[in-house]
Design brief:
Layout: E1 8-11, E2 25-31, E3 42-47, E4 53-56, E5 62-67, E6 72-78, E7 84-86, E8 92-93, E9 97-102, E10 108-113, E11 124-129, E12 135-137, E13 148-153, E14 159-164, E15 169-175, E16 181-183, E17 189-190
Antiparallel strand pairs: 1-2, 2-3, 4-5, 5-6, 6-7, 6-8, 9-10, 10-11, 11-12, 13-14, 14-15, 15-16, 15-17
Length: about 210
């Protein structure tokens, strides 16, 4: 995960063979040097194990990771030097989380849970982000959808998309007041491929000169 100011690169780690007995994994920070190369790695925090997802707020002040084995989301405040300090009150429990994203305005976090609707709390969970980085569920969380793996949010923060791994579909929601979600007409949509996994979904920003 590259920090929005381009100064630091953060790595989280996961292995499909990790279990509840596996040790916590480090979060590694690299400084980006003027020539584009990376400085020496520094382990600046621990989370996990099986940290499949990592994301940052648009202002670079918060970083969140998912632990698929510990079944939670951990959060950190990012210092000016790129250091990480755990957010009070976290982690929060999420069943088998994978991908996650913060909305452009920094007010909400959406987390993919790899479960179906028959195994609450569902496949896409929403959280309100408070000033200290702590999280509380949105009013309608979880969204009524099957298990998801990756999530993407439009640059204007109006819509969120998540892939449904087992049915090879993409589900779409409009983001409403308080971070609540309203499923788009015709959603979910077929991907035309098979079993989209974590980090497999992205939204292309549209230049302002192109009509939408």
């Amino acid at each position: 995960m590259l920090s929005p100011d381009g100064r630091f690169l953060y790595l989280s780690y996961a292995d499909a063979d990790e279990t509840e007995d596996s040790p916590a994994r480090p979060i590694t920070r690299y400084a980006l040097l003027p020539d584009g190369s990376l400085g020496p790695p520094q382990d600046v925090a621990k989370a996990g194990p099986a940290n499949y997802g990592i994301t940052m707020s648009a202002d670079g002040g918060l970083l969140y990771v998912t632990s698929n084995v510990a079944q939670n989301v951990q959060g950190f405040r990012v210092g000016k030097d790129g250091s990480l300090k755990p957010v009070p009150g976290l982690p929060v429990s999420v069943p088998f989380p994978v991908g996650l994203k913060v909305t452009p305005d920094g007010q909400h976090l959406y987390v993919c849970a790899n479960l179906d609707t028959g195994s609450p709390p569902g496949g896409l969970l929403g959280f309100t982000i408070h000033a200290d980085g702590s999280l509380t569920p949105t009013a309608d969380s979880p969204a009524p959808t099957a298990g998801t793996a990756a999530v993407a949010i439009t640059p204007d923060g109006r819509d969120v998309f998540a892939n449904i791994q087992d049915t090879s579909q993409v589900v779409a929601f409009a983001i409403g007041s308080g971070g609540t979600l309203k499923q788009a007409p015709g959603s979910p949509f077929s991907t035309g491929g098979k079993r989209p996994l974590s980090q497999s979904l992205a939204v292309r920003p549209v230049p302002a000169t192109i009509p939408q």
